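re: the backbone from monday

yeah here it is again, tokenized this time
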């Protein structure tokens, strides 16, 4: 579906910020539909489902530990550290000329084992869930068994009859490709034109079949979905509408809770937790927001971040049309160096939940992605990909507003978490180039 010029004009009148958005100017948007959790009504996911998802991760831990030795030390639980980044905070304050009260942490999903990005949560989870279902349906395993069996030749031979398909800008394909190939599935990844060449090469090296498209992410998904559907023994991981991806992401909340407890960080009505999440289709930030809300209720405030050239969830939520609109409807080109965020149309599953639970969305220009990448590298020695660096601007943007004082909150008591969504697999040479670009932009 596409919208008439008149409709777009009506929206621009109703939502003045939309004109800035279509002019590619950065904006900070507060969500007028945010509900207190107690009034959010029934959502399309529940706490019980999130708990079940966490149980699945534990069942598969022996398999993961056996198949990916880098996860063995953590007992096969794939999790990332939460690090305070004090130097980066100072440097952000100096660069952007604003004081950021409270503490700033980085959730280092850029270090997540095996997939090197947040997709190790959602992507791995959905494939493991499918594999478990097949194995149970075929009488090969029960939930009480030791899942290291999934690493056996018998299981690999069995899964080799089945195919998995996925459309991706890069990281989702990497995560699905790696885990599916390890289990023995035949896996096809439909890549958009903006997917980086090194991601395609790495996938091929892991045994995935890579299909390349001229178009963007939406087209790659469409093609992948169609081709996968034609095969009765194939399963399509649908990033535009997947509850499994969402639940896989949500379990991060249990782990963050544990990490904050270990750091003795209090989160309650007077001590807000503010989380900044890079947003593509909205699945990973949606799942994590949902999970954190289940644990911290209204004491957690979640903001998404999108590039000025790919504000898909922003236009979807602002107009209320969600997955029915794409950025191209507004003359926005969906071209950005934040390849994990280069998504034109929001996820329908995640958007209905995000609509009620997120505090807002801010957008930023590509050059800031590189500046932030360099600030973090110089400040705390952590190298992340441009998409991930976008979350670092959140505390700066929020501190320019009256967000805390308007809510009767003391900004000094806030804990900020910028969610660093990817980076570990970026080749050294590419990382150096991106870092240099950021350094130059900072001069
Ligand atoms: C996929 C991805 C995101 C966004 O996740 P969505 O589920 O698409 O919203 C953010 N950062 C990186 C690095 C990613 O790969």
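seq for it, each position gets an aa:
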């Amino acid at each position: 579906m596409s919208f008439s010029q008149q409709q777009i004009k009506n929206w621009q009148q109703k939502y003045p910020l939309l004109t800035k958005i279509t002019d590619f100017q950065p904006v900070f948007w507060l969500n007028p539909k945010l509900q207190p959790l107690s009034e959010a009504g029934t959502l399309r996911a529940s706490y019980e489902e999130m708990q079940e998802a966490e149980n699945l991760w534990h069942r598969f831990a022996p398999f993961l530990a056996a198949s990916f030795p880098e996860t063995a030390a953590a007992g096969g639980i794939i999790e990332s550290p939460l690090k305070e980044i004090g130097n980066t905070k100072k440097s952000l304050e100096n660069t952007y000329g604003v004081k950021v009260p409270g503490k700033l942490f980085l959730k280092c999903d850029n270090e997540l084992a095996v997939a090197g990005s947040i997709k190790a949560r959602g992507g791995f989870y959905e494939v493991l869930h499918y594999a478990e279902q097949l194995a149970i349906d075929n009488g090969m395993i029960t939930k009480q068994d030791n899942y290291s069996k999934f690493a056996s030749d018998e299981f690999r031979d069995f899964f080799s009859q089945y195919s998995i398909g996925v459309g991706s800008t890069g990281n989702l394909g990497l995560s699905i490709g790696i885990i599916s190939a390890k289990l023995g599935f035949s896996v096809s990844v439909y890549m958009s034109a903006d997917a980086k060449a090194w991601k395609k090469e790495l996938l091929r090296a892991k045994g995935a079949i890579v299909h390349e498209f001229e178009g963007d992410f939406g087209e790659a998904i469409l093609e992948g979905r169609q081709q996968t559907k034609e095969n009765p023994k194939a399963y399509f991981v649908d990033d535009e509408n997947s509850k499994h991806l969402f639940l896989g992401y949500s379990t991060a909340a249990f782990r963050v809770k544990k990490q904050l407890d270990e750091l003795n960080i209090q989160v309650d009505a007077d001590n807000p937790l503010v989380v900044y999440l890079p947003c593509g289709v909205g699945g990973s930030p949606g799942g994590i927001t949902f999970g954190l809300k289940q644990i911290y209720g209204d004491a957690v405030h979640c903001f998404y971040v999108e590039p000025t050239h790919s504000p898909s969830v922003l236009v979807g939520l602002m107009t209320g049309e969600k997955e029915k609109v794409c950025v191209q409807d507004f003359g926005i080109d969906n071209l950005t160096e934040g390849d994990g965020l280069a998504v034109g149309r929001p996820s329908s599953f995640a958007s209905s939940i995000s609509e009620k639970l997120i505090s807002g969305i801010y957008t930023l220009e590509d050059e800031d992605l590189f500046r932030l990448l360099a600030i973090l590298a110089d400040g705390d020695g952590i190298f992340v990909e441009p998409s991930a660096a976008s979350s670092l601007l959140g505390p700066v943007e929020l501190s320019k507003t009256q967000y805390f004082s308007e809510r009767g909150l003391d900004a000094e008591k806030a804990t900020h978490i910028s969610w660093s969504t990817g980076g570990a697999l970026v080749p050294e040479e590419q990382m150096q180039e991106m870092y240099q670009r950021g350094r130059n932009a900072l001069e």
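The mean pLDDT is 96. The pocket of pyridoxal-5'-phosphate is lined by residues 117-119, 171-172, 278-285, 340-341, 343, 385, 387-388, 421-422 (CB under 6 Å).
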